[in-house]
Amino acid sequence: MNRLSLICVEDDEDIGMILHYALVQLAGFQVELFTSAEAALLHLERYPPDLFLLDVMLPGMSGVEFLTELRKQPRFAHTPAIFLTAKTHFLSKEAAQALLLSGVITKPFNPLTLGDEILSLMQSTSADAGDVSE
Amino acid sequence: MSVRATYFTNLNPARWSLLRRIMVLLVLGLGLTVGISFWIISSSLNTELRREYFAHERQSLENTAHRIEQRFKQRAQFLQQLAPLITNGQTLLPADELERVLRVAYESNLFSDFILMDTEARGIFDYPFLPERRGKDFSHRPFINELMQNWQSVISPPLMGSVSGLPSVFMAEPVFNQAGQPIAILVGRNGLESEMLFQRIRNELQSYSGQLLIIDPTYDLYITATDEEKVLQPLSKEDRIYLSSDELQDTWQGFYQDKDRKNWLYVAHKLGFMDWIVIKKAPEVIVLASIQQALTYYMLMIASLLIPLAFIMVVLIYRWLAPLRSSIVQLNKAVEEESDISKFNIEREDEIGQLLLAFNAFQSIRDRQQQLKDELLSVVSHELRTPLTSIRGALNILQLDQVQQDPEHRKKLFNLASRNLNRLTFLVNDLLDVVSLSKGMLRLNLSDCSAQEAILEVLEDFRALLEEKSLQVEFTATEEMKVHVDQLRLQQVLSNLISNAIKFSNAGSRIQIALTQQGEFVRISVLDEGEGIPMAFQPHVFERFTQADLSDRRKQSGTGLGMAIAFELVEAMGGHLSFDSVPGQGACFYVDLPSVKVMPDDTNKALK
Fold first, then answer.
1. B487-504 and B451-461 are packed helices; what angle lies between their axes, rounded to 10 degrees?
2. Domain spanning A5-133 has what CATH number?
3. What is the per-residue pLDDT across B360-375, written as a single tens digit (0 to 9) for each?
4. Euclidean distance between CA atoms B245 and A128, whole angstroms
5. Which of A12, A41, B231, B415 falls between 20 and 30 A from B121, CA-CA?
6. How many helices (H) and strands (E) does chain A have?
7. Which residue windows are transmembrane per the record (chain B) (predicted)?
8. A21, A89, A108 ranked by CB distance to B392: nearest
9. Quick one: A93 exposed, middle or buried, by C-beta within 10 A (0-12, 13-18, 19+)?
């Protein structure tokens, strides 16, 4: 079984460190971590990931802007995406649906269960997506 | 809730609606205006009209009196002239001649009867003929007696004729022979019942409901009256008023109220010849009738003008107050439902419009404050969650056995947690400062302290950070400068400025700190060579949370409160915080603080 590959954008270095431990060491995902959306955009050409895990509040381009940008590119139009944020009520339900958001994980999160949480969110949305495609 | 209760509530003007008050005021005001103007006009016109009436009536009464006097004088003269004509010088004329003379005299219409008496006052002849008179003794009549004493002309008081039984005034004239001896008495009867003059005058008066009275004050009688039943009757109580007058003039005037409470105006004149009083009187109502009518027209005219006017005013006021009423309804509804209120629609710029405009503006401010509060809460919760995420994450991971056995890893996570705990602590402190500053509750411990020392101490704290970014600090101070501040708070401000300068400086660049005297202030400037402050953010640098967009703030990894706190702290200490920045060329912040004058002597002592 292939390891799940993630592109993760988180500007806080300390949280980045926790994320790295939780997702790489504990969950066994393959994670590429960026501290800004602009930096992540530069690396997108190389490989499409299985999931985007994005902080919302970022220096420069925000997580929401970044995902909007991604959805414009056919390659990433359907790639699952999850927001990881300390902000509540930053996005309306309609906007979340338009962005094909798989879910939102709020900070503070538990690094020990973060991997499972991501997997369950992905499964529930992929089931929905299947229904829609049929 | 009884009807009575509501009724009493309605009597209390404090509970009335504005419209109701204005209406009551309007009705009272207009009523008073009409009433007062009516009263003033009617009283002044009444006075004028009375004056006019009196002036006119006096004139007319004097004319009347003159006519009466003339008439009686004429008769007396006539009788005087008649007396010699009925003698032949020695004795009276014979009966047939006597009758002829008296018939001619009678046709003059001046007397009703002529009676001829002998010197003993016995009736000897009369014209027109009444058989009872002939031979009748008239000596008991006082006026005849009077004549017989002096043998001069006499005029009797009004009397009832003893033979005719009619009210009369008699004129008696002695008849002398050539020797000057009295041979007879000639008496002329003036019948008051048939007096043409009185009748004419009465008729004149009837045209305006006036009354004519001629009274004899001596005998307390009516000589004549418009009411014919009164003739020769004793004076009524009402008419005695003319007797009690102390007027010294011949003509006087006045008014009185009769027993029916009716007002009468009168003019009285004393006849010189007869000692009678002639009175003309008229009810005041009739005298003033023309005024009453004019005033009634006036009232009708005013009312027909004022009623529609008042109606229009009430309608206008009702409409002017409409926005106020609808706003009250809107507000009450919002209060009842605890809901928000939409802005009031303003059509006019009158006081009500201004009130609603102010209310709208006030609401905008409140909305903006609410929005700021929401934003603040959201930002604060975000800022609290970020370090909390690191702390919780680190602690969760530390629970794992594999981590606990790796000391290096363990230390790294402990450091991470502690670093974020510090961040959390600073944030909470900042928030508390903001609350104290906004409520004006911040306590400052003001004292004179050295600006140099404060700067140097803060720089010492940042030594490690400066070395890490290999930044160079240049500190220039011309002389010893003391400022009157709270030292710890000043250091908090400087820490903030210097940490910002470090944050925004590129590695290897310079930070310049200078201390200069600017008039009464000491200026501390902190200059960095970083990226500067974007023009768009410059007006908002000292605002809480609002100065930059959120992503930008994240880059500073601050709370967005530091600058706002620094600004308010400096202001609270009587100073001022400002800055200059050209985007891309760094920024320079200026802290101006109230200086303490350092006397040269003190400096010397301090140095020693």
1. 50
2. 3.40.50.2300
3. 899 888 888 888 888 7
4. 125
5. B231
6. 5, 5
7. 21-41, 295-318
8. A108
9. exposed
Nearest to B502 by CA among B447, B560, B459, B544: B459
Chain B residues lying within 8 Å of A21, measured CB to CB = 393, 397
Residues 6 or more apart in contact with residue A11 via CB below 8 angstroms: A35, A36, A55, A57, A58, A59, B554, B555
For the record, the structure tokens of B83 come out as 């007396």
> Is B443-607 in the same CATH topology as B196-289?
no
pLDDT band per the 50, 70, 90 thresholds, residue B138: confident
Averaged pLDDT for residues B438-452:
85
CA atoms within 13 Å, Cβ hemisphere of B455: 23
Q: How far is residue A13's CA from residue B301's CA, in Å, rounded to a whole number?
A: 93
DSSP output for B481-549: -EEEEEHHHHHHHHHHHHHHHHHHSPTT-EEEEEEEEETTEEEEEEEE-S----GGGGGGTTSTTTSS-
Beta strands B221-225; B211-216: pairing state: antiparallel
Distance (Å, rounded) from C-alpha A94 to C-alpha A110? Answer: 28
Retrieve residue B380's tokens. Answer: 């604060």
Q: Are A44 and B419 in contact (CB under 8 A)?
A: no
Instruction: Write the residue in A21, A89, A108 that is nearest to B389 by C-beta.
Output: A108
Cβ A107–B400 below 8 Å, yes or no? Answer: no
Mean pLDDT over B423-436 rounds to 84
Q: Which residue ranges make up each domain of chain B?
A: 86-194, 196-289, 443-607
The backbone region for A89, taken as left when phi is positive above 0, alpha when psi lies in -120 to 50, beta otherwise, is left
Residues 6 or more apart in contact with residue B558 via CB below 8 angstroms: B500, B503
Which is more confidently placed, A91 or B472?
Answer: B472
Which architecture, in CATH terms, is B86-194? 2-Layer Sandwich (3.30)
The residue type of B368 is R
What is the 3 state secondary structure string of B378-443?
A: HHHHHHHHHHHHHHHHHHHHHCCHHHHCCHHHHHHHHHHHHHHHHHHHHHHHHHHHHHHHHCCCCC
| Alpha-carbon gap: A85 to the closest alpha carbon of chain B (Å) | 8
Q: What is the 3-state secondary structure (H, E, C) of B283-312?
A: EHHHHCHHHHHHHHHHHHHHHHHHHHHHHH
- Supply the ipTM of this predicted assembly: 0.88
User: What are φ and ψ of residue B141, in 5° steps?
Assistant: -70, 125
**Could you tell me whether strands B159-160 and B167-176 are parallel, antiparallel, or unpaired per DSSP bridges?**
antiparallel
Q: Per-residue pLDDT for B130 more than 80?
A: yes
Indicate yes or no: CB of A57 within 8 angstroms of CB of B416.
no
Lowest mean per-residue pLDDT among B78-82, B97-101, B154-158: B154-158
Residue B602: predicted pLDDT: 46
Q: Is the pLDDT of residue A1 over 60?
A: no
Round to whole Å and give the CA distance between B295 and B301: 10
pLDDT tens-digit readout, B354-413: 888 898 899 888 888 888 888 778 778 888 888 899 999 999 999 888 888 888 888 989
pLDDT score at A127: 58
B385 and A57: CB-CB below 8 Å? no
Q: What size, in residues, is chain A?
A: 134
Q: Which residue of A has its CA nearest to B383?
A: A86
Q: B196-289 has which CATH code? A: 3.30.450.20
The mean pLDDT value for B542-568 works out to 62
Q: Which residues of chain A does B387 touch, with a Cβ-Cβ cutoff of 8 Å?
A: 14
Distance of CA B121 to the CA centre of its chain: 86
Q: Which CATH number fits domain B443-607: 3.30.450.20, 3.30.1300.10, 3.30.565.10, 3.40.50.720?
A: 3.30.565.10
CB within 8 A of B98, min separation 6: which ones?
B86, B92, B116, B125
Distance CA B545, CA B435 (A): 14
Q: Are B434 and B564 in contact (CB under 8 A)?
A: yes
